[in-house]
Write a structure and sequence with these properties.
This protein is of the alpha+beta class. Helix content is 41%, strand content 24%. The chain has a five-stranded mixed beta sheet, with no helix packed on it. The protein has a four-stranded antiparallel beta sheet with strand order 1-2-4-3, with helices on one face. The chain has a four-stranded antiparallel beta sheet with strand order 9-11-15-13, with no helix packed on it. The longest helix is centred in the N-terminal third of the chain and has 32 residues, at 121-152. The protein is elongated, with a radius of gyration of 35 Å. The N and C termini lie far apart (106 Å). 34% of the residues are buried.
């Protein structure tokens, strides 16, 4: 609201401040603002407006410069009063997030090292050193880069607020609060791109250290476990860095390498050119009002990739509710310097090497197996003879499987039994329990003693194998002559 106690004094103060930098030829006063038509010096427009912004900020006003219908206008409004800052909130969130990321690191380290004990001093230290500290350094430098670039453009901003969360990340990231409106398109680009570039400058060395530790670690062994497993998809830039660190196949990902993966993921998310994400700042600075079309396209793309990873759908909803359009800066008419244009364009291109459509793949336990009769599933024997089959059973799933094998449809006067090929017939039984480990197989012998008074007949016997999540039936045909 423009009016305080003396509107005439306010209008005169505002007019005199604008006249210091711009030639005024008309003044229009409303209840909420003062609008002045001006004739600017095009070569000095940006610097003069920035000086005016600083002068007015000290007096509690904010100017906006616009161009429409062949006329330049400076509109001045009261600067909204911000709340008093409380650094204890920043400090408390910093400590809490360090604790939650350390907890996440402890879980990661316990899984990586195979340690059966969780609450140990070594596990706490390793969780903090190998995960919490690298990850918080990435997030912290990202936000501090925004903070210091804001200071450079004389935009009031808060120190970082960290957001604690539960494992596997232990944090939802961090953010800074902008206390001033963005002054110009150049400030939008510089402040917006500073965070991803600063965070990336830390993520890359953390990734190299993580890859080195991974290469000198151990290979992945065993099954995924009954709870399933989470696989991460390595980003293109991360894959490129991995070429610098030779390693064997199937190496277990070190927690530090995972921290770097999170850093690349955060970079990609922030670079999405929509709303008030970092990429949205940069796009608005580069493209002006046309950036909204890129924002709409990005939102639609998020909905589409949500078919691969449902986490993108939740993020798309968050972006939608926060707003797909980016507000205009106070000075939306000054052209960008070539350096800023190049920096912003290069920054947005980083999205192509840090974004993956499906960052996380959840793998559920697969209890599938195959059953094949070696030498065929039919045999011909004489009455009173012994019918013998060899059945090969192969675990084709991703987890250990416990099977129970039984024979069905066996005539009453036939004697049938089962035993493993690597055991003796004296171990034969009617019901065979078989533990088939991941990537292993076994051969089962099926034998049937036929009575001597049989005439010519053909019978189908079913060997049924029931596992935790699957069932197979092998039909065995016996022909009597």
């Amino acid at each position: 609201m423009m009016l305080a106690n003396d509107i005439t004094a306010d209008v005169e103060l505002v007019r005199s401040m604008v006249a210091k930098y711009f030639s005024i030829y008309d003044v229009k006063v409303s209840y909420e603002s003062v609008k002045m038509l001006v004739r600017p010096d095009e070569t000095m427009l940006e610097s003069n407006f920035e000086s005016l912004r600083q002068d007015m900020k000290a007096k509690g006003f904010v100017p906006i410069i616009s161009y429409s219908g062949g006329e330049h206008a400076v509109t001045v409004m009261r600067l909204p009063q911000g709340k008093k800052r409380n650094l204890w909130i920043n400090r408390s969130l910093l400590v809490i997030t360090f604790l939650t990321t350390t907890l996440a690191g402890m879980l990661l380290w316990s899984d990586y090292s195979g340690s059966p004990e969780f609450l140990t001093v070594d596990n706490i230290l390793n969780g903090a050193v190998f995960f919490a500290i690298p990850l918080m350094a990435i997030l912290g430098i990202h936000e501090l880069s925004h903070y210091f670039m804001s200071k450079r453009h004389k935009v009031d901003a808060s120190l970082p607020y960290f957001i604690p969360s539960i494992p596997p990340f232990g944090t939802f990231g961090a953010f800074i609060s902008m206390r001033d409106p963005m002054p110009s398109r150049r400030a939008l680009v510089d402040i917006g791109i500073a965070g991803p570039l600063g965070g990336l400058a830390v993520t890359i060395p953390v990734a190299l250290v993580g890859l080195f530790l991974t290469a000198n670690g151990h290979a992945v062994e065993g099954t995924i476990g009954q709870a399933g497993a989470m696989y991460v998809v390595i980003q293109p830039l991360y894959q490129l860095l991995s070429l610098l660190v030779p390693m064997a196949d199937n190496m277990a990902l070190h927690p530090t390498a995972f921290a770097a993966w999170v850093g690349f993921l955060v970079t990609a998310i922030n670079l999405l050119p929509v709303g008030q994400l970092d990429g949205g700042h940069v796009a608005r600075g580069l493209l002006g009002d046309k950036a909204k079309y890129l924002g709409y396209a990005t939102f639609i793309a998020l909905i589409l990739v949500a078919m691969l990873y449902d986490g993108w759908f939740l993020f798309a909803l968050l972006v939608f509710f926060l707003g797909l359009n980016h507000p205009a800066p106070l000075n939306d008419i000054s052209k960008l310097p070539k350096r800023t244009l190049a920096l912003g364009t290069a920054g947005l291109l980083l999205l192509t090497v840090t974004f993956v459509p499906q960052p996380i793949i959840m793998v559920t336990p697969d209890y599938s197996f195959e059953m094949t009769a070696l030498g065929g599933n039919n045999t011909t024997v004489a009455a009173g003879g012994m019918a013998v089959f060899q059945v090969f059973i192969n675990n084709t799933g991703n987890i250990d499987n416990d099977l129970r094998l039984t024979l069905e449809d066996v005539p009453r006067n036939w004697s049938a039994s089962l035993f493993l090929s690597n055991s003796s017939a004296v171990d034969a039984t009617n019901v065979l329990d078989l533990s088939l480990d991941y990537k292993t197989n076994a051969t089962v012998i099926v034998q049937m003693q036929l009575p001597g008074d049989l005439s010519e007949i053909t019978r189908d016997i079913s060997l049924v194998a029931k596992g935790t999540g699957a069932e197979k039936v092998q039909v065995l045909t016996v022909s009597v002559v």
